[in-house]
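Q: Structure tokens for this one, please.
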Amino acid sequence: MKYIFYFSDAGRKHVARHFDIENLAGSHFLKSTFSTPDDLLSYLNATAPIQIIPQSSGKSAYCFRIADGRMAGTSGLAQRSLLPAHDIVREIREGYTIEIGLVSQLPLTAEFCIIAQETEEGLSIITAFPGGYARPFAQKSQPREEYELNKKFWEEHVLLKQKETTT
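A: Here is the predicted structure, written as tokens:
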């Protein structure tokens, strides 16, 4: 089956954060692989996902892996238990307090995920990020079961951010 991905204005703006803001916690695309969100979009529309994970409200996660040896970007997610407690800090992001694991270097990954909403026009991209699948942040407005799964996931995981180096 051919998937037709596209950007809404809000989706393009959100995805651009994973390209342009270097000090934002989380995953970032490598410009040497995808220089712009439009480069990513071209790749998506020419490549089949390796996995599709259904979510609520007509959304799905489409997981990809670049097979030619290139890396998609840096993975900005880790299990909390793998990091020392003193390297976990809190930051406010989009009005939510989230926990961030500070690391000396973000790991490279060939995998990336696209979260998209099914529409009559195709698959409207909500967000895209390098790395494996990550559940959405828990929000009280989510169905109860989904909220509980998301809450548990984020109790066990943290976003990553590279430690600032001092010269």
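A few notes: The first strand starts at residue 5 and ends at 7. The first helix runs from residue 9 to 20.
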